[in-house]
Structures are given as structure tokens and as C-alpha cells.
């Protein structure tokens, strides 16, 4: 399993930064970010800061990491996922079904584009045995 850690930038030169998470410091790459400043929260994966975080999101990620640790130890972990408890799960848009047609919704895809793909597929089937 891959994890991203919410780290706080201590100092940076724009290419790398000394960051801290729970008392442990490490130097990470920040060249993917636009001018991170000292005290900024960043999501770090494989020693690379991949995006900026706000304080609330950094806290939620830290709580989730604690929750994973609690679950691995056989302890109750519900308190670490308070934002997920007692709410109905929702699928991402691309996995939701359209109520009228029953087909999966595809973001940035119109009905016309879908029809065009069907027409193109039919033309290919006419030319080739598929």
C-alpha cells in the first residue's frame, strides 16, 4: 500500500525542502509545487511533495494514518474516521449510473460523443470481422 504523508515545510530552496511529520524531518523534492513557503502543509509521497494541503485536509490524512495503525493493532478505529462515519457513501461521478439510461456516466463526454463512438465501432465491424 502506498501512503502520502501530510508534512509541514520547515525551509525550502524551491527545489527541495526540509519537511516535518510528527517530529521526524526529511528532505523532500518540491519542484512539482508552485513556490511552497515555510509552514505550508504538503502531501509527500516517495520523498516528493505532490500537492499543497490546507490544515483541515492535513489533519484528516493524519487521522486516517492513525486509524490504519489502530486497525492494525486490533484497536477501535472509528474515531479516526469521524468524517466518514454515519454518512452514505457516494461513488465518483465516473462510476455513477445515469438514472434514465442505466449506463455509466463519463465526465466530459456528451451523448453525441458516445453515439459517434458507436457509429465508428459499427463502421469498423463492417470492414473487419471483430
Net shape: flat
Order of helices and strands: EEEEEHH
Find the count of extended strands (DSSP E, 2+ residues): 5
The low-pLDDT segments are none
What's the CATH architecture of the largest domain? Roll
The spatial strand order of the largest sheet comes to: 3-2-1-4-5
SSE-based structural type? alpha+beta
What distance lies between the first and last C-alpha atoms, to the nearest angstrom? 39 Å
Oligomer: single chain
Looking at the structure, the CATH topology of the largest domain is: SH3 type barrels
Compact summary:
The chain is of the alpha+beta class.
SSE diagram, text form:
Elements: E1 5-12, E2 16-21, E3 24-29, E4 41-45, E5 48-53, H1 55-72, H2 111-127
Antiparallel strand pairs: 1-2, 1-4, 2-3, 4-5
List keywords for this structure.
alpha+beta; SH3 type barrels; 2 domains; 2 helices; 5 strands
Provide an overview of this structure.
The protein is of the alpha+beta class and 130 residues long. It has two domains: 5-81, SH3 type barrels, CATH 2.30.30.140; 94-127, no CATH class. The protein is 27% helix and 24% strand. A five-stranded antiparallel beta sheet has the order 3-2-1-4-5.
Amino acid at each position: 500500500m502506498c501512503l502520502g504523508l501530510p508534512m509541514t515545510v520547515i525551509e525550502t530552496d524551491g527545489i527541495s525542502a526540509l519537511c516535518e511529520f510528527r517530529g521526524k524531518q526529511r528532505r523532500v523534492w518540491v519542484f512539482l509545487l508552485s513556490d511552497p513557503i515555510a509552514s505550508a502543509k504538503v502531501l509527500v509521497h516517495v520523498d516528493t511533495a505532490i500537492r499543497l494541503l490546507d490544515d483541515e485536509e492535513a489533519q484528516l490524512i493524519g487521522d486516517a494514518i492513525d486509524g490504519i495503525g489502530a486497525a492494525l493493532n486490533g484497536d477501535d478505529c472509528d474515531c479516526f474516521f469521524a468524517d466518514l462515519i454515519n454518512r452514505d457513501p457516494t461513488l465518483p461521478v465516473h462510476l455513477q449510473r445515469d438514472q434514465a439510461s442505466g449506463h455509466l456516466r463519463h465526465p466530459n463526454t456528451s451523448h453525441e460523443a458516445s453515439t459517434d463512438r458507436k457509429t465508428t465501432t459499427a463502421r469498423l465491424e463492417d470492414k473487419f470481422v471483430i
